[in-house]
Amino acid sequence: MYGSVMAQVAQATIGNSEFDRDTAVALRDPGVPGVYDAELSAGWTIITAVNGGYLLALLGRALGDALPHSDPFTVSAHYLTPSAPGPAVIRTETIRTGRTLSTGQASLFQYAEDGTEVERIRVLATYGDLDALPGEVRTTALPPAIPAYRDCLGPSDGPAPIPGSSAITERLNIKLDPATVGWAVGAPSGKGEVRGWFGLADGRDADPLSLLLTVDALPPTAFDLGLTGWTPTVELTTHIRCRPAPGLLRVSITTRNLAGGFLEEDAEVWDSAGRLVAQSRQLAKAPLARG
Amino acid sequence: MYGSVMAQVAQATIGNSEFDRDTAVALRDPGVPGVYDAELSAGWTIITAVNGGYLLALLGRALGDALPHSDPFTVSAHYLTPSAPGPAVIRTETIRTGRTLSTGQASLFQYAEDGTEVERIRVLATYGDLDALPGEVRTTALPPAIPAYRDCLGPSDGPAPIPGSSAITERLNIKLDPATVGWAVGAPSGKGEVRGWFGLADGRDADPLSLLLTVDALPPTAFDLGLTGWTPTVELTTHIRCRPAPGLLRVSITTRNLAGGFLEEDAEVWDSAGRLVAQSRQLAKAPLARG
């Protein structure tokens, strides 16, 4: 019965999915290149905050339209003020266009009550063509050791591994390695590691834009360090290294140095073909509260 | 004899050294905030290219003057066109000022023959006050295992561990772990690791600005991967986590994933007190030539 219902639901695809609809940007005026209207969806919020990776995907989409190259290679984002669901405008600038790489800047603004624009996030990004890269890989990096998907834990597997009432939880298919969810039952490992499987809940496969969401979508490493509360991102830089193969992704996030009230969080994303498809690092403010 | 000559040379200090003089920026017009003239010194070149970390320190100094906070916490730089020794102008923008953090943007331009400005590098940076941070440290990161300074190798110790005729070599006191200089004698380890001791040759101690130089000053990991030639930086993001203690620094740089003609290079910088003072990651184009 359940299976037959599932069979009737067409799997979402790249270009036709909730993620694609919710990251849509519309050129405001054909005569003014680089200015895009967008609507921040309430579907990608954690408590009341719009997820930083979703915002990055929106900015990434606008830049992919504005620049002559379509794939983000490296995106550096500085977060300025908290975003809220609702209308936004993305203003892009093409800084340099080259044969293989082009560099642009984009800012996402929302509106104050008097209509003035308030900047939420600014990014510098360099784009290229992932499909034009040579196939050679020489890597010493190894995928994270994560138990099989069926042996990992999601939001429905007991005491809220992903805490809070978060709309984004319904849109993500995250199953965490049980070794990294001790914090959900009051027993954080203290190592600063969270890892697991990642997909979009509607089955849409990953692409470079959704990888910008993926790098900031797991519960924060601060939870595994025994800290609770908000871990606001100051800056997040993501390298997209390869177009991901279809299928679920494996993601690990790690913090090695919590000091002076700040921490770095490194993410690695691996695809089903065993390729390291994205690497990111963010600087975040550490939560003040003990778990 | 040699010792007595050395004793007569006053050690350079923070604020009074070649590095400080060569990163000086001058407000162009008291009525126009945020625009600084600078002179790119030929003293910090590798072959003919101006070192990317030196450029970053120049931009960092201008932003430290323009923003209400003086210490770089996170600096994201996208490199656009190669710089050359000579005049430059740095144009900064204050994006957001907060109580503990402020964010700015800066671009370094040089001049074409017809006087038009050509952008070399653009950065987004968030600044704060390192001395205002709480002292708590919870780190799992360990300093790199490097032999004693006297057992490490510098440019004068045989077949040019730092190849080429590079003015910057005279200004740096770099001694590399012998285990990571096999490439200098045609035997790279293939691991993608280079590590060693770092100081400024005139004895000036490290500060947050000189750390921006330090993260991009060692020979590239590509050499240890058996590749020779230029490794142009596409993007480099640096986190300054702590004001460094006086004394030599330990630096390790590592590449885990060379793929599709690009590689990431991670740097860690540790001070004499055993603190992790800086972390950086860059995306660079891999050299095309085999060593």
Automatic annotation (TrEMBL), chains A, B:
What Pfam families does its record include?
A: 4HBT_3, 4HBT_3C
Where in this chain does the record put each Acyl-CoA thioesterase-like N-terminal HotDog domain? 41-127
Domain (Acyl-CoA thioesterase-like C-terminal) spans: 164-284
Record's protein name: TesB-like acyl-CoA thioesterase 3
Organism the protein comes from:
Streptomyces tirandamycinicus
